[in-house]
Specification:
The structure is a homodimer of 432-residue chains. With 432 residues, the first copy, chain A, is α+β, with helices and mostly antiparallel strands. In chain A, 31% of the residues lie in helices and 26% in strands. An eight-stranded mixed β-sheet of chain A has the order 6-10-11-16-15-14-13-12. In chain A, strands 1-2-3-5-4 form a five-stranded mixed β-barrel. In chain A, strands 7-9-8 form a three-stranded antiparallel β-sheet, with no helix packed on it. Strand 8 of chain A pairs antiparallel with strand 8 of chain B.
Chain lengths: 432, 432
Amino acid sequence: MKDLLIKDLSEEDKGKEVTLRAWVHQIRPLGRLIFIILRDCSGMIQAVVKEDPKLLDFAKKLNLEDVVEVKGTVIPSRSKIAPIEVQVKSIKILNKSSPLPLDISGKVPAELGTRLRYRVVDLKRPENLAIFRIQAELMDSFRRFLRSKGFIEVSTPKIVAMSTEGGAELFEVKYFEYKTYLAQSPQIYKQLLVIAGFERVYEVGHAYRAEKHNTIRHLNEYISLDVEMGFIDNENDLISLEEKLVKYMLKSVAENCSHELKLLNVDIPTVDRIPKFTFPEVIEILTEYYNIPEYKDQTDLDPRGEELICQYAKENYDCEFAFVDLFPLEGRPFYTMPYDSKLGRSFDLLFRGLEISTGGQRIHRYDLLLKRIKEKGLNPENFKYYLEAFKYGAPPHGGFAIGAERFTMKLLHLKNIREASLFPRDRYRVTP
Amino acid sequence: MKDLLIKDLSEEDKGKEVTLRAWVHQIRPLGRLIFIILRDCSGMIQAVVKEDPKLLDFAKKLNLEDVVEVKGTVIPSRSKIAPIEVQVKSIKILNKSSPLPLDISGKVPAELGTRLRYRVVDLKRPENLAIFRIQAELMDSFRRFLRSKGFIEVSTPKIVAMSTEGGAELFEVKYFEYKTYLAQSPQIYKQLLVIAGFERVYEVGHAYRAEKHNTIRHLNEYISLDVEMGFIDNENDLISLEEKLVKYMLKSVAENCSHELKLLNVDIPTVDRIPKFTFPEVIEILTEYYNIPEYKDQTDLDPRGEELICQYAKENYDCEFAFVDLFPLEGRPFYTMPYDSKLGRSFDLLFRGLEISTGGQRIHRYDLLLKRIKEKGLNPENFKYYLEAFKYGAPPHGGFAIGAERFTMKLLHLKNIREASLFPRDRYRVTP
């Protein structure tokens, strides 16, 4: 087993004989020397071949991405980039690579479609590993924070017979003789678990939307960071929890991914308080401050509105995040707790012009829930098992969900959400 | 927001006025007193109602699972079970419960089918919360261990156009105009990520098997704890890693779930070395030691064989785990690295008579992989994107996967794997 990662080597190892197993990331002949940049999951190091004519000849024939075992001596580096390099004594090829369909050195940028077609090769770019290390830190810090607050991790079914929002935008699964769907969100199940006395739950899992949109901000399969908790007073408890959570996640990425952030040339914003606007306030800002009368009777926010509200928050509160609370019930799911006859206790979290999270207080009373299902034109029979649970002790509760890819995309200034998904699933893409 | 969990109360709080928000778990009238056991996600506490006739009258009418807000004073308890209790000053009903369809006190055990029909009520039993807290610790300790070894967490697509084993036992998903399936395992994608230079990856995610078995050890949707790593010498590196991992997971559960283990009356086994047998040795044990000649020409292990090998390991090595290595290629997937013409570098981990994990070294050479796909009667065209990746620098690699529910089931002596799944999906169950 490989027991030495490249990052483990330091100046203290000067003079040591080492064995590195890695990929050939770059080859640069320079007079009678050949420099090879070796790459593994932990980093890169320069290996130098010199003098030995047989070895020089062998090194000349290496391909990029050849998998090699290099033995050599750790020596001080002549370059300014790194303090050490390895003087090569032997190279063994563990597996030969063919010429690559994509440049991965960053010299010849490829178009995203090509990159996704050859995604495995594309992912070899160190920038990609950095993106997904940061995404992994987002997921892990999400869990750490919630665990510390007494939340329990759960895993809910993705094959469901009930739909969350009532039938639209669902992928159908042939499950033996049953007609089932891929869950649009763990909404129903996380609520059931709060009622079941788990009280505080979180889940990191896939969610599925059969949306035909083919935009830079939609995926049909995405990672949903879900939270649900009982015994809240109202949605403001959730907003306060999410604010603390997001701050913790940002801090964790800043602390634990400094190398990756440097590589991607990204600074993590420090956040103090996230401003909160109500939906009526948002409409006022859009119609009055930005002077766009068309927003007057809107019941939801469009992408342009999200961008302007973030711009407003940035200019007036020096914050790139903004909560929008009390969305009109009309555009929100049946389980949304009403605030009054028009508005619901439902909020979005916007970040740099994009909704990255939605949450709210849920209805916990059976009668009101049944009424709202009917008012939304849904069939209560389709929600039988869900509704039934509210008869057996449902506490006041609510939760939220963060889209991991959207958060990653905005945090790292990626231009397309597909760059924040290892193997994105979109309207026309099911491979690789 | 609820800021006091029941478990936070201790003897130091004697005399304090507290507000508890919880479920009514039990009610016991005793002469002119009424004892109420309150339950939240963190534990239980006794609340005592006395003297106040109005309050006694109110308390008498409480239902089990009513959601209540109780204000009262922390006092020393007269019972021996707990040092403190709460003397009630007021009770407010946050949501009323109907009479329960199931007894959740443990006095009247219900049949599993009924329990799963009313799963939300069934999950209210403290034993169930304990089971899933332990499962959460298994998942979390799995991640912690691998993170500490330089592994990166990934999330791979569950909607796939390629099948891992070639078309059998797949759930079909209607994905717009494409015919896709639910991934049987992240096998293909975790291998692709190793090739892509991620080198060491893990994933906790759902896997789907359209098996028609309706047994106590099969689920159609289960949690797969997946690991894959590059630059191994052979499968023994993986066996060694998995041994360390399993020991860490057991230790973590023992340390972090003592309360839950006590409630379930379970002891966590301490493991030193896990014995390893080769498949030919296993056949010899079964035919010679256990004198069952029918095993002579077997190419796979059946449940009885798994039980006997675990019995053998227990009797001869005092270990409830056993690795079986070098399974015949015939019963293993095409990507299995051959050991010789008959056997593959593929292993199982058995625990208390059940296979809880499968792993092995994979083929990393394009030519051999293509040959094995053809020999298995599969169409290379269906593996186009997978095969292609092996041209661009695939290191020697391998991995394994642990079934979270199987591990939980065996660890906690559960009789049926459905008890280790919050909302199990089986041959005839897609709700709740």
